[in-house]
Amino acid sequence: MDGLVKNLVDLALGHPERGDDRDERDSQPRDERSRSTWSQVVSGGSEDHDRFSSNSDYDTRRRPGGEEERYGRNEWESGESRPTMRPQKDGGANNDGWETVHKKPSKQHHKVHMDQRNSYKRPLREQEYSSDVDYGVNLEPTDEELADLSKALNKLWELDLNRLVPGKDYEIDCGEGKKVYQKGDMAEGSLFSWLSEDIFSRPTFSRFCSLLDNYNPHEGYKEVVTAEERQEQEAFIEEISRTAPIKYLYKYLLTKGIAPESYQDFKRMMTSLWFDLYGRGGTSSSSSAFEHVFVGEIKQRREQEVSGFHNWIQFYLEEAKGRVDYQGYVFPRRRGDMPDSETQLLTIQFEWNGVLKSVSSTLIGVSPEFEIAIYTLCFYLGGEDNHVELGPYLVNIKCYRLGNKIGSAFPVAD
Q1: Fewer beta carbons within 10 angstroms: which end of the chain, N or C?
Q2: Is 102 a catalytic residue?
């Protein structure tokens, strides 16, 4: 078919490996369904989160040196043979104007559709949220939990009612293992084989996804936060504040004298903690806790490296678009703990936009509210190392500070 470009091969760049801890230390200063129509997920269920509006067909994205790259709005992304499907810019009508970029093969066919009506951009007073739910569990922290951070974090694991179930909600294929310093791709396909199509209908998941495209991934470039993006931030915090993990977090911090009495003031505190901009890479207002931990950044010092990027949802979406190349899991420290399709604490190696992340750890299938809660609790009441139990997993929650902000936070298998 005319206008169909086939077999564009993604370039793979080789970079020296660096450990996750070293990477993060470098950043130190030395169920109600959503009523929003933000997303519709079809054919295997991923979510395209590129920016769009009803007034234009394309969006501009800032790049280093003032360069701008244009992304199609309302675009479809497919992970079959890991192609990236983008609209042709010449407006060619053949095959509906799509071009196909072939990537590494995956086991499933993922298509992502972006609905043009993004209600999450509306003013806060026009947003619709989930109703507060009586979860049928006691959200008051016990004396034992107040005295032991590990018990409090494990309680948050129990309260994560939105956590996905392996085999029911998604499936992963870990591929082959490798040591951190080993080069080469040990995974024949994608990490995610499939994800249930209704996951991104869940309010906190959907609102989380609306935030992921708000950032320039290159460390050291100033972020410009629009009024709409601020609304998305505040709406996300409002949505997760209706869940059990955040309500428990509030009661815990209130008892410890950290959270304000007013729940509204607490939500403002959370918005500031996660979304206020700070300097990283020598440039002011170039990063935030949310961007670093969940979205990821590409460091510009010396050779390029991926920094942060510890969230499984961001990984799934970027993998579905062909921007992430999963290269295998990193051998666990303890023998007999080899990961499989049921594993929810995973240490992996991958390339993002051709830049290597030699070791990265992530909690697969957990909800956004759970991760926000555990990292917030460790920031206020823990240290740099927080050895805890999360369900069946022995975990060290690493938490690095940048002054009074979260520099980075991520799990490491103990």
Answers
A1: N
A2: no
